[in-house]
Specification:
Layout: H1 3-18, H2 73-85, H3 90-93, H4 97-100, H5 112-126, H6 133-144, H7 150-156, H8 161-183, E1 224-227, E2 231-233, H9 240-255, E3 261-262, H10 265-268, H11 278-285, E4 289-297, E5 301-310, E6 316-325, H12 329-359, H13 366-377, H14 383-399, H15 404-419, H16 427-444, H17 449-461, H18 465-478, H19 483-495, H20 502-512, H21 519-532, H22 536-549, H23 554-566, H24 570-583, H25 589-594, H26 601-616
Parallel strand pairs: 1-3, 1-4, 2-4
Antiparallel strand pairs: 4-5, 5-6
Helix pairs in contact: 1-5, 2-8, 5-8, 6-8, 7-8, 9-12, 12-13, 13-14, 13-15, 14-15, 15-16, 15-17, 16-17, 17-18, 17-19, 18-19, 19-20, 19-21, 20-21, 21-22, 22-23, 23-24, 23-26
Amino acid sequence: MNSLNLAIAVGIPILIGLSAARGAALISIPVSPSATYAENGAGRAAQPTSHIPNSTPVASIAAPTAAVPAIGYAEFAAAVKDALRDFRSPDLLARNRLLRDGLCNLSRSAGPQELKALLCETVGTLFGNARDEKLRRILELTYSEPFLKQQAVADRLALSFGTYRRHLSNARDRMARWLWETSRLAPIQSELPLAAGPTATGAGAEGKTATAPANGEPVSPRLSIVVLPFLNIGGSAEDDPFVDGITETLTTDLSRCSGVFAISRNTAFAYKGKPIDARQIGRELGVRYVLEGSVQNTSERIRFNAQLVDAESGGHLWAERFDKQRADLLDMQDEVTTRLARSIHIEMIAAESRRAARERPGRLDAVDHTLLGWAAWNRNLSLDSARQARRFFETALRLDEHNVEALIGFANSHMWEVNMSYASDDRAAQIRAAETAAKEALVLAPDSAEAHVTYGTILYAMRVPERALREFEFAIGLDANLATAHAYLGQLKFSLGRAPDTRAHVAEAMRLSPRDPFLFHWHFFIGVADVYLGRVVHGIESLRKSVEINPNWGLSQFVLAAALALAGLLTEAAEVRAVGRGLVPNFTVARFRAGAASDNPIYLAQREHFYRGLRLAGVPEG
C-alpha cells in the first residue's frame, strides 16, 4: 500500500483526534472595487457587472479587519496545490499557508501529519467512487510516488500528456473547492443586506458574521447526504446485487452534482439491515440529508420508492414512487438513478435556500446566495424570477468571484432574458456579460458539463449554432445523463434546419428527468419543431402542455398564440396573446425576428410561418 492509500486508511481517526484542536479560522473574502469585468495582472477576469434595467446596486461589504488573514480562492487553491506537491516532505508541509495561517479549520498548533491526513481524507471522500477512480489514481501516482515524473504517470495510465494534465488540474480544483467550502463553514465576513433583494433586513446587519452553532458542534456541509442501502422488498437474494447497485450508482451520480458532498458507499453500507434513525445517522456522519429507498420486484414490473429526510429534524422533505417495466437491469439502473439524482439535487437546493433564509437572514455568504439563486431559477421560471436569480448570483460573485456555480447561474439568467424572453433592451451587452462569466467558469472548471451547456446557449445567441452544437455534444460526452444538454441539442437541430431530429433529443431529456423543472421548456421545443414542419395541430398540443406547466413564461404564450392563429383559432389566439403581453409587454414580431439563431435557409423559411401567425394573433410588428 503506498503512502497516500495508507494515509487515507488512517486519516479519519487522525482527524477525529484533531477536531478538538481545530480553530475557527475566520476567512475574509476580498472584493474587487470594480463593478465590471476587467483583466487583472494575471489575465483573469474580475467579477462581472450585470445588465439589469433599473437595478439597485448592492452595497459594498465590510472591509476585513487587520487581525484576520485575508485570502482569496486563488491563493487558497495555490496552497492546496503546494501541499499536494510537498506531500512527502514534512519540513515543506510545515511551512504551508494552510497550517501557517490556521486555514481549512486547522489550528495553528496542527502539524504536517494533520495536514497530510486532511488531504488524504479529502481524496478518499471525493474520489472514492468507481466513476472517479481515474482521478484518484492520477493524484496517487503524481503525489505519492516521489520518483515518477508527470510524463511517466501519464504513460503508466495510458493517457496523453495533455489529457493527464487536464485531469490532474480538474482533480486539484475539486479538492480545493471542497476544502474551501469546508473552511467557509467557519465564520466569514458577511455582506450588507441587498437593497432590493429578498434577504434585506435593514442597516443593522452591517458587520455581522455567520456563526457556527452556539454549542460548538461542527456544521455539516450544506448539500451533504448519505444514500442508505435500498431495501429489497419481497425479492429473492438474486435481486440483491441489482438493489445494491441502485444505492452505489445513485451515490456516484449525486457526488457528481454541483456542490454535493455524498458519503461513500462503503460507509453507507455499514448501516445495511440496521434500524434507521435519520437524526442519529446525520450526527454520526455529519450530513444534513438522508436518502432512504426500496425496490420491489414483481414478475413484470419493478417499483422504486425513495424518501429524502432532513437529518436534523427527521422530517420528510420529498418522496418519489414510480414503476418501470422489466428491461435490461443496467440500463434500468442508470435511468432510475439519473432521474432520482436530478430530483434530489433540486430538492436539497430548495431546502438549503429555505434554511439559509430562516437561520441566517442578513448574514448570508456566497454559497447561500448561490443556492438562493438556483432555488429561484428552479421555480416556474419567468422573466422576473430569472432577474431575481441573477441578483442572488451577482451578490455571490461579489463575495467570491471564483464561484463557478454563481458564474454559470449569472450567465444563464442573462441568456434567459436574451434567448427565451426576447425582453432584453441591450442584447449585445447581456451576451457579452454572459460570455465573460461562462468563459471564467470554464477556466475554473474545464470539465463541467453544465458550464459547457451554458456556453452553448451563449453561442446560440451569438448566431453561431454549429459551435453551440459542438458545446452541447461535448457536454454530453462529459455527462451522458445531463438532460438539459440533450434538450438544447434538440433545439439546435431545428435552428440548423433539421427539425425532424428535435423530438428524439428532447425525448431523451424527458426520459432522463421526467419531472424536471424545465419540462415546460422541452415541450416548447417539440411544439416549435412541429409547427416548423407544418404539423400545427401537433405543435399546439405540445405548446399547450408548456403553458399549462409554466404559465409564467411569456414566449410560450406568444408562440402558442401564433400556432392557434395559424390553425384559424383567432379568438383563442387573441386571448393567449393578451396573457403574453402581460408577461412581456415589449414583445414584438421584430424582436422575435431578431432572435433568429442561424442563417440556415430552411430554418429562416420555417420561421416565416411564426411571423405570420404572430401578426394574425395581434402581436405588434415593432
